[in-house]
TrEMBL record:
Stretches assigned to the Transposase putative helix-turn-helix domain: 1-45
The protein, known as: Putative transposase
GO molecular function per UniProt: DNA binding; metal ion binding
Domain (Cas12f1-like TNB): residue spans on this chain: 290-355
Organismal lineage: Bacteria, Bacillati, Actinomycetota, Actinomycetota incertae sedis, Candidatus Hakubellales
Pfam families tied to this protein: Cas12f1-like_TNB, HTH_OrfB_IS605, OrfB_IS605
Length: 377
């Protein structure tokens, strides 16, 4: 099993300058390779492969000596990134989706370097990360890397530097747990569990929206290319970073609590891309990050040896969890009242019970009959 570990780096000013120069060289190479592929197809209807572009790097180093500042495998990774961008472009094109042709990278729009093999160009010793052609950089190992180190990505984010290690390890499964849970995600509450517990929606973006607006207004008033604009841009990026960090921390904490308590986890598989087309709810849906929560649950469940099921959510809010009758209701109707069995419960709680039932059925487990939820307030 592969896992990503992120650590903070503290490079000196000289090392920061070296890393910045390496990023700019990688950006130039990415744009060069993209232009090469684009021109070859438009002018000659000829495709250029990843291996052809990798083999052209030694000749490019002679034409542009500044490429020698970057480790060779990092340059190869630039060609690999572009190849994957084109692969994704053609995949979306075949599926009839909006293809999104690979774009040229503008100044400061290339933010990471990837060393492909542990021990080649980089290694960790003590509290230092040794990078070839950069030197020893202080690293904060808040937790020791577990498993076999595979790759290292140096990332620039909001004026800070991070090292992201990909490690391969064999997780130890936890003791068996037969407890099952159904999870219905929403906007009123972040999630409603089939135990009738609700997780409040923290609305991180809405909380910091005023600070973000103020920072963006300050940025718009600055002249491009000035030190004041660069400073204002950094303030905006740090507000975004703070929102993302809070959301990330909240999601992983809640996912960990669920995986620690339950052995079978059932959640709805939502088509979030289509839901974002609703302009009235798009901002709230993006803020709540349901997909990120589902991914965190899936990864932690796999690591702990738990069963994770994502089911089709169609009609889970309309079907009565007690008798199975369909009770039509609009989105504004927040309570489920069944005229057949007289069940009265919140629509999200009703949906979570249906999600639990469908999840257990997909695993071949006979769900337990729902208790009498009539007159539940």
């Amino acid at each position: 099993m592969n896992k990503s570990l992120k650590y903070r780096l503290y490079p000196t000013k000289h090392q920061q300058q070296l890393l910045q120069e390496q990023l700019q060289e990688c950006r130039w190479l990415y744009n060069h390779f993209l232009e090469e592929r684009k021109n070859a197809w438009e002018q000659e209807r000829r495709s250029i492969s990843y291996f052809q572009q990798c083999n052209s790097i030694p000749a490019l180093k002679k034409e542009r000596p500044s490429l020698n500042k970057v480790y060779s495998q990092v340059l190869q990774n630039v060609a690999d990134r572009l190849d994957k961008a084109f692969a994704n472009f053609f995949r979306r094109l075949k599926k009839g989706e909006e293809p999104g042709y690979p774009r040229f990278k503008g100044f400061d729009r290339y933010d990471s370097l990837t060393y492909k093999q542990a021990g080649f160009g980089w290694k960790v010793h003590g509290n230092c990360l040794e990078l070839f052609k950069t030197g020893n950089i202080e690293i904060k190992l808040h937790r020791p890397p577990v498993g076999k180190l595979k790759t290292c990505t140096i990332r620039r984010q909001s004026g800070k530097w991070y090292a992201c290690f990909c490690v391969e390890y064999a997780p130890e499964p936890w003791p068996e747990n037969e407890k099952a849970i159904g999870i219905d995600v929403g906007l009123e509450s972040f999630a409603t569990l089939s135990t009738n517990k609700r997780i409040a929606n923290p609305r991180f973006f809405k909380t910091d929206e005023k600070a973000l607006v103020k920072a963006q207004r300050g940025l718009s008033k600055q002249i491009k290319g000035t030190p004041e604009r660069r400073k204002a841009k950094k303030i905006v990026s740090r507000v975004h970073e703070r929102i993302a960090n809070r959301r990330h921390n909240f999601i992983h904490q809640e996912a960990r609590k669920i995986v620690n308590t339950f052995g079978i986890i059932c959640i709805e598989k939502l088509n979030i891309k289509s839901m974002l087309k609703n302009h009235f709810l798009a901002k709230s849906i993006a803020d709540v990050a349901w997909n990120q929560f589902a991914q965190a649950l899936a990864r932690k469940a796999e690591e702990a040896g738990r069963k994770f099921v994502a089911i089709d959510p169609r009609n889970t809010s309309q079907i009565c969890s007690r008798c199975g009758a369909t009770v039509e209701k609009t989105l504004s109707t927040r309570w489920h009242d069944c005229p057949i069995c007289d069940a009265h419960l919140h629509r999200d709680f009703n949906a979570s019970l249906n999600i639990l039932r469908l999840g257990l059925q997909s695993l071949g487990i006979q769900p337990v009959e729902a208790p009498d939820f009539s007159r539940v307030e």
